[in-house]
């Protein structure tokens, strides 16, 4: 059973600096852990109550032992994006949420910092990281959980590194978030992007953190199906590979999105909750779209950015399905 040091480590991952240091984040709840284990994300460890283990038919495994067969090992990878440890050129795109938090040195050795959950885990012959499954009591789970009512299971996952495919972005819709800083809004937008078939997300470097626990929870599993890249947006949007594609920006007072010609491919830019799209990004937008209020006087001052983004995504989907 996990001890005090492990509980302390799991709790430390609630803070950005420790997620950044260890390149790990926490996934909580039965649905979310199921989504994780079915995805291409790498699982470092699972901590579950006896009830959950019995329901799944999974015996607990100790350090140095991989999870038992059929216990929710890393997904098949169907449809998963390619990962990379190389630089992404001069487009301003970082390799991971925090850039190259860990790399392999010239000898091919993994230089990431070690953590209690990965000690002694070893590797399979094919190079995948196995993960231990620990039985944990409800009391210990409540100490490790950030939920008001802890669920039956939580997992530790590695923050992914996705390779941005700028050429592919010219042929599909990409959601671009410019300083969207509220975790709840970011989580909702990831979920909406997944729902409406947008599988690539670009975020400014000062946007909220995708692996923030509140963001992860509010995506309801969509975080495992949408590729995301943090970038210096003005540099990326101006890159030669993306020249000629439409860049749509959401603005208060702009013409209604349902009256505007919409392409099946392009960039949809949403700005900060209170200040909108930054001037540097605004210069690169060639289509302004909006959502007019039914009550232009005496109604709300603005529409929540997650709600607005979802309406815009729905209109693109309706027009181009």
Approximate shape: elongated
Total domain count: 2
Element order: H for helix, E for strand: HHEHEHEHEHEHEHEHEEHEH
Low-confidence stretches: 63-79, 81-129
CATH topology of the largest domain: 60s Ribosomal Protein L30, Chain: A
> Under the CATH scheme, which class of the largest domain?
Alpha Beta
Strand order of the largest sheet: 7-6-5-9-8-10
CATH superfamily of the largest domain: Ribosomal protein L30/S12
- Distance between the ends: 50 Å
Total helices: the number is: 11
- Major β-sheet annotation: 6 strands, parallel
Protein described:
- There is one protein chain.
- By secondary structure, the chain is an alpha/beta fold.
- It folds into two domains: 4-158, 60s Ribosomal Protein L30, Chain: A, CATH 3.30.1330.30; 166-320, Alpha/beta knot (3-Layer(aba) Sandwich), CATH 3.40.1280.
- It contains eleven helices and ten strands.
- The chain has helices at 4-12, 16-22, 30-37, 50-56, 138-144, 166-169, 183-195, 213-219, 233-237, 279-282, 305-320, and strands at 24-28, 43-48, 133-135, 153-158, 173-177, 200-204, 227-231, 247-250, 266-270, 287-289.
- Strands 7-6-5-9-8-10 form a six-stranded parallel beta sheet. It has a four-stranded mixed beta sheet with strand order 1-4-2-3.
- Helix 8 links the parallel strand 6 and strand 7 (227-231).
- Helix 7 (183-195) packs parallel to helix 8 (213-219) and helix 7 packs parallel to helix 11 (305-320).
- The model is unreliable at 63-79 and 81-129 (pLDDT under 50).
């Amino acid at each position: 059973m996990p001890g005090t040091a492990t509980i302390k480590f799991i709790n430390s991952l609630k803070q950005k600096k420790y997620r950044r240091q260890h390149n790990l984040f926490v996934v909580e709840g039965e649905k979310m852990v199921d989504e994780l284990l079915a995805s291409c994300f790498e699982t470092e460890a699972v901590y579950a109550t006896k009830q959950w283990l019995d329901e799944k038919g999974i015996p607990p495994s100790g350090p140095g032992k991989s999870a038992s067969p059929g216990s929710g090992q890393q997904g098949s990878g169907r449809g998963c994006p390619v990962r990379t440890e190389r630089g992404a050129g001069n487009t301003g795109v970082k390799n991971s949420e925090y850039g190259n938090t860990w790399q392999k040195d010239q000898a091919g050795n993994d230089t990431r910092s070690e953590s209690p959950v990965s000690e002694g885990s070893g590797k399979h012959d094919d190079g995948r990281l196995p993960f231990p499954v620990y039985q944990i009591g409800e009391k210990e789970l409540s100490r490790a959980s950030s939920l008001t009512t802890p669920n039956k299971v939580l997992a530790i996952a590695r923050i992914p590194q996705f390779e941005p495919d700028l050429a592919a972005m010219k042929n599909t819709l990409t959601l671009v978030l410019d300083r969207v800083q509220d975790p709840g809004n970011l989580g909702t937008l990831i979920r909406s992007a997944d729902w409406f078939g947008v599988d690539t997300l670009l975020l400014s470097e000062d946007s909220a953190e995708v692996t923030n626990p509140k963001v992860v929870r509010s995506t309801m599993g969509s975080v495992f199906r949408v590729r995301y890249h943090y970038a210096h947006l003005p540099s990326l949007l101006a890159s030669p590979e993306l020249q000629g594609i439409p860049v749509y920006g959401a603005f208060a007072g702009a013409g209604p999105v349902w009256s505007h010609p919409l392409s099946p491919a392009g960039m949809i830019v949403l700005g900060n909750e209170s200040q909108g799209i930054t001037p540097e990004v605004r210069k690169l937008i060639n289509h302004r779209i909006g959502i007019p209020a039914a009550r232009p006087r005496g109604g709300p001052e603005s529409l929540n950015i997650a709600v607005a983004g979802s309406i815009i995504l729905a209109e693109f989907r309706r027009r181009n399905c």
